[in-house]
Amino acid sequence: MRKISIEELIALVPQYSIAGDPSGKYFTNIKVINEANQESLVWVSPLRKDKQQLLDETLADIIICDSSVDVSRVKDNGKCCLIVDNPKLIFLRIASEFFSPKIVPGIHPSAVIHPDAVIAEGVYIGPNSSIGACIIGAGSVIHGNCHLYSNVTVGKHVTINAGTVIGADGFGYSKNEQGEFEKFPHIGGVVIEDNVEIGANTCIDKGTLGNTLIRKGAKIDNLVHIAHNVVVGQNSVVIALAMIGGSTVIEDNVWVAPASAIRDGIIIGANSTVGMGAIVTKPIPVEEVWIGNPAKKMSK
Amino acid sequence: MRKISIEELIALVPQYSIAGDPSGKYFTNIKVINEANQESLVWVSPLRKDKQQLLDETLADIIICDSSVDVSRVKDNGKCCLIVDNPKLIFLRIASEFFSPKIVPGIHPSAVIHPDAVIAEGVYIGPNSSIGACIIGAGSVIHGNCHLYSNVTVGKHVTINAGTVIGADGFGYSKNEQGEFEKFPHIGGVVIEDNVEIGANTCIDKGTLGNTLIRKGAKIDNLVHIAHNVVVGQNSVVIALAMIGGSTVIEDNVWVAPASAIRDGIIIGANSTVGMGAIVTKPIPVEEVWIGNPAKKMSK
Amino acid sequence: MRKISIEELIALVPQYSIAGDPSGKYFTNIKVINEANQESLVWVSPLRKDKQQLLDETLADIIICDSSVDVSRVKDNGKCCLIVDNPKLIFLRIASEFFSPKIVPGIHPSAVIHPDAVIAEGVYIGPNSSIGACIIGAGSVIHGNCHLYSNVTVGKHVTINAGTVIGADGFGYSKNEQGEFEKFPHIGGVVIEDNVEIGANTCIDKGTLGNTLIRKGAKIDNLVHIAHNVVVGQNSVVIALAMIGGSTVIEDNVWVAPASAIRDGIIIGANSTVGMGAIVTKPIPVEEVWIGNPAKKMSK
User: Fold this and answer.
1) Whether the Cβ atoms of residue B202 and residue B180 lie closer than 8 Å to each other
2) pLDDT band per the 50, 70, 90 thresholds, residue B101
3) FRET partner for A240 with CA separation of 20 to 30 A, picked from A137, B27, B76, B155?
4) Which domains does chain A have, with CATH numbers?
């Protein structure tokens, strides 16, 4: 493995201070701090109670941390700390730069692409995926075994993980005189803006008449259900096995925790948090945290 | 787009009255009422609090509504209301007739069909689907990336959305003397009756010895788990991320809301409702509404 | 159908006693006890309240039961009971031996296999599955429409049902100065040990730096989410629509019931039970039962 010098590392960090002696230090791998060897790059989470012990005992030569740990013994240990404001963010940028597997663009020959699909430059489409009459933006990655119905628009630098289905008809019916359900036709689509990431085996239904909309930078996890005509706001997060009912609007920077459910037709205000397993039957104002079944505002 | 005259529309409506002047009116598109243009056909939901305002302010020339709104100003506005008992149902029938995308029958060449499968006339099977030794009834639609194990019987005019898996072994084990699980063999199948619709990425397991049964007209949404030997009754509804435990019987016309879970081996009585996120550990009598964790009968 | 004599049956049972007259008895099929015909092999569950009635009224000639039912009338009825300690286990072994469909090893031509994948003898890979640079152990079965990313190691005699996705990136991000999420690179993998069974449309994410680990004999049902770096212990069970958060450790012999959710970074002690729909936000000690939202220790 290639030796990456501390100078190469530092070149990627906008602001830092150093404790210990950086001269000649390098790393060849990235590890969790308590599983490191001497050639590992590691980071210390400011949130961990045992952070001082982790720092003192790690075998790694180079440690990314913040100023909440005591770095006075680092020099004597022959190690070197890079002290930054957000060690997790800096570590993940370094890790992405040097260790993230790069995906080579291209359409796997087993993928089935509708003749009317419009696919930009630098797109990857994995094996056994099926793409309808869709628009796929530059640099997007659609892993294998996905299914995109027609009328799905995917922005730039979007990632969609395996097994995800986008653009199925929503669940809209009306009972007739015989007590049987007749189906509302779904002529809308799905619009996914730039830099969205979507997990595996997730479902995003198409809109009934308008579109379902996933806005810029939103992150959606595995096995999530997003019903017809939902809006998920910018940089909002919807985690595994969460359910968003039809026409509900999730505003920007909302955190929807796993296994929660949000009823149809309501608004979840910006910067709010829906707790794990919360069953949300009412609108949530901005910047509130709601938990429980039925969900209520969390008392501090 | 084709101009559809109000005469063509009226020909499809069994019973109605008219307010305003229908002469020369037509539509070329269907829209949500507050996003309409003059050439849109729209409807007003009787359940909306702002229905009068929506009616008064819409740009559409033709509006389907019921008698709960005041149509006295329609004539002066140069518009025309078709007044019916169930506007949603009438609107969806018109929409289906003129705007629903028609699926052309055929088996996509990338689909893998077991040599013993029996597939009727007018069936569509989408790309990258795998069909075992199954029977598929006339006019049914199986979208792409589905997987049907052998011994699944699908009735007529059934729709199965992408990514759905039908006929996997159920979750049945017995612990042996070493504390290891040994598996119950699953030799049953799945029977899906006519006019059933099933969402995307849903799972319906095969029966252990008998069959799992989805009865006529039932509607199942995305990411639903239906365990071995379950019965879902006629015109019952199971919405996204709901879980039905093994051998449980959902009787007719039941509404199972999203993210609910129903334990194994119980009966959910006809016309009952399981609320969103309800965790049902006991049988539910007919026509009751149960909510909460654990679920209890809702007090009025 | 072949007649299987009671002597063939008895040869597979280590310890038993007999009531009634076994001479000349045989079976040609296996059935649920109240749906049996004379040629059926059936069993009586010791847990059923109506077990005596089921035994007395069944049409089957051969019944596997335990000593909790009264077998004194069996002889007069011309039937024969095989009395064992664990009738379910004995029945499933007989059923597996004579009736379980055998899967013929082989890789379906529509499956896409990475050139660096290492696949042992006797493996089955079904139609439209995609296998990355993985190691697949002897005798394992991967049904169709599955997707294994690279760096997944599957042990021996593992079963993975259709539509399951293993090895997608976990849900790990850090917010940057602009309030946008940057992604933690996932360079870990997934290790699945021997005799694990995994349901349909389930997701098991890869580890961030280390591995996600499913230990020997664990059983995972349909539509389960297992996040990055989780450990599922030996012979533990995770049932449909359950959610296990990142880095959480499920110890051995744990029962995770359907539709439950367990937060990230905690330990669920050995032999404990997480009840249906439980929302677990704290570690669970060994051998406890937790239920509710939020989950609490069940009082006896």
Assistant:
1) no
2) confident
3) A137
4) 4-98 (3.40.1390.10), 164-297 (2.160.10.10)
